[in-house]
Specification:
By secondary structure, the protein is an alpha/beta fold. Helices cover about 35% and strands about 25% of the residues. It has ten helices and ten strands. A six-stranded mixed sheet has the order 6-7-8-3-9-10, sandwiched between helices. About 35% of the residues are buried. Bound molecules: adenosine-5'-triphosphate. The site of adenosine-5'-triphosphate has 11 residues, from strand 2 and helix 2.
């Protein structure tokens, strides 16, 4: 796992500075600052409705901030042309709760799909090799000819992550990766997030309400409070406080050591 000092010496692949975003009277992001460093797993915590999804949408260019700067992989996201934005999005892997597999396709076909659509220069053998590599990475080589309906929830999640990895993203964005999974499967997904970091050298933002997950995968934790990342650091640093906006997170979560 990355040491904190190493993380802080790395270059930022996402830089967010003084970002504001309102919906009507509701000022969701209020001068938010955040860096994602190359190679790190950064966990974003925050109560429901604090703006975590809004932030991810701004990073991926689906929403525009009202003011402030968002730079992703050297690009000023708010000022990209539609074509440049598409190119940037191909360098980002999204693992979202609603990124379901295609039920009518086998695992192999599900994994081939993004390559066939986005990497038109690849031959059959290269596609087959890429499918094998990502299936091996998520530990599910044996499911290659199965249908999604034959897989468990945890296996479907892993195949979803494999489908994202097949385009070799530089950044991974995980939105609540362990939501709705049993505790054993949660541990498997946490391990997978760490394996992906190591094997594919990705830089990742992981949004979660699951503190076991946060502790297991986060090189750093960033807590969104009142529209800003007011507590950023290691897990222990973030929770070593009597701040009443922070302590309930810890008190009400069961932490598996
Ligand atoms: N397109 C939109 N139009 C109006 N309001 C919006 C829009 N998108 C988000 N909001 C509001 O912004 C606030 C933050 O929403 P967001 O989805 O980012 O919360 P979150 O931190 O991801 O919450 P959760 O943990 O429940 O997913 C909410 O009050 C939401 O209603």
């Amino acid at each position: 796992m990355l040491q904190k000092s190493k993380t802080e010496n790395s270059k930022a692949v996402i830089t967010i500075r003084d970002v504001n975003k309102s919906f009507g009277d509701y000022h969701v992001l209020r001068g938010a600052d955040l860096d994602l460093y190359e190679g790190e797993n950064l966990v974003v915590l925050g109560r429901s409705g604090t703006g975590k999804s809004v932030l991810i949408k701004i990073i991926s260019g689906l929403l525009k901030q009202d003011s402030g700067m968002v730079n992703v992989l050297g690009k000023d996201v708010a000022n990209l042309s539609p074509k440049e934005l598409l190119e940037l999005r191909l360098r980002i892997g999204f693992s979202f709760q609603n990124s379901a597999l295609y039920d009518s396709m086998t695992v192999r076909e599900n994994l081939e799909f993004p390559l066939v659509r986005n990497r038109k220069n690849l031959g059959k053998a290269e596609i087959a090799q890429a499918v094998e590599t990502v299936l091996d990475a998520v530990g599910l080589s044996q499911t290659i000819n199965q249908m999604p309906s034959e897989l468990s929830g945890g296996q479907r999640k892993r195949i979803g992550i494999a489908r994202t990895l097949i385009l070799r993203p530089e950044i991974m964005l995980y939105d609540e990766p362990t939501a709705g999974l049993d505790p054993i499967t949660c541990i498997e997904i946490n391990n997978l997030i760490n394996e992906v970091q190591e094997r594919f050298k990705t830089s990742s933002i992981i949004i979660t309400h699951d503190l076991t997950c946060a502790k297991a995968v986060g090189n750093r934790i960033a807590m969104l409070l009142d529209g800003q990342f007011q507590r950023v650091g290691t897990f222990d640093e973030v929770f070593d406080t009597a701040d009443e906006r922070v302590t309930p997170f810890y008190d009400y979560n069961f932490i598996q050591e």
